[in-house]
């Protein structure tokens, strides 16, 4: 029997016997399902479904109908690939994990009915609430955090506040409907309300402060009673119910009973997918939004509005630089050039167009020839923008070439992120290596090299970078399986399990291939010049928001 046949047979058996882990992630533009084998590095199948947020009544939202139709489509796509590649269809899994865009606000009443449309991380209408909470807590509370959304509703005297019985994130909501349990992973929880890393739970002192803050305006609110229960990686978070199985798979083939790990945000799954849960490591996730996560060795000396304090899925402290705008504007320009190619009689697919244009960026001048590109489709708190207006700005003596234009577009993806990372560097935080993941890194050596120049730090990309958070949450599900098996073994006197970092190093990434690119001095200097112009030109961005 050949090795390939043996591998296929082993995968088929694992699928049939439910010795696999399923990860589902709700990204900004795509819902993705990823199935892995007993070896967490073995991706057996992937399914996906594209979706888009809507801007309704000046609120960025997704409908709950779209949540369920979308995840059913992604799951169905995964099952179809399993059938094509392995000749069987899964009916159960060893463990399942759900991840989604962090933060935002899903509020329910005592009858579990949604009170207002889902308010996503992309909304920037919570400025007064975030400012008041930051001052009261002595901790930076970003606009997109769930507590900022709740508090803004209090400040605005919204009618629904008196009926709130529970609020959560998108991952917490989906997990609740699959299992019946109102729980959340500590990493995702840290985007709802500040976490005390010593207890791995909501900060009790700040809970008391918040209840006192709203005592006159909303005396019925007891925020601790409204938040989901916090769990850390490796803790059991429920099992798939009959109703949950039907929500994922309306065909009825999927059976209830699978374990579920704590639901996590995309920041936490990004850390797992890039093996960056240890101090002095970090990762950059680039998609519709872009953010950097840096695991801290010690607390920061000061509070900075550019930096969020969150946690790893194991509860360790992390500094996060989150930007609402990532690679969407870059993708729009690639679409424009793709259409030109098609109109000229030489059509190319999207991946090929990305590859050509990104490689062209490497031919550009180190400072992008004086061209500045702003990718702000939505508001950007770090840049001081309440709304977005994408711009390309240049002086008359700049050099407008395709190479310089594309380098400016890639630099624009990293612009606001770099403003936040400069603040972190000023705090004395050092990095041994940054890991990167997201679709922009599929073209080898381009976005990765330019990011290394922007951060002035080595940047590593792994073989699973394009699978991203869906694979990361599948790995967290497999970690739950490992800890559950270890707990059973401990009862029999065998190994009692290990921590998440060790599991990732020894079980997931021991033989993984990482391509690491060191910063090129010319890129570092060129990006620094670009960023100086970028920072100065933010006044033009702000003027565009007012004028257009």
UniProtKB/TrEMBL annotation:
For this UniProt record, the keywords arranged alphabetically read as follows: Carbohydrate metabolism, Kinase, Transferase, Xylose metabolism
The record places domain Carbohydrate kinase FGGY C-terminal at 283-479
GO molecular function, a single term: kinase activity
Q: Pfam families under this entry?
A: FGGY_C (PF02782), FGGY_N (PF00370)
Task: Please state every residue range assigned to the domain named Carbohydrate kinase FGGY N-terminal.
Answer: 22-247
- One GO BP annotation here? D-xylose metabolic process
By sequence similarity, the record places it as follows: Belongs to the FGGY kinase family.
The name of this protein is ATPase
Species whose genome carries this gene:
Orlajensenia leifsoniae
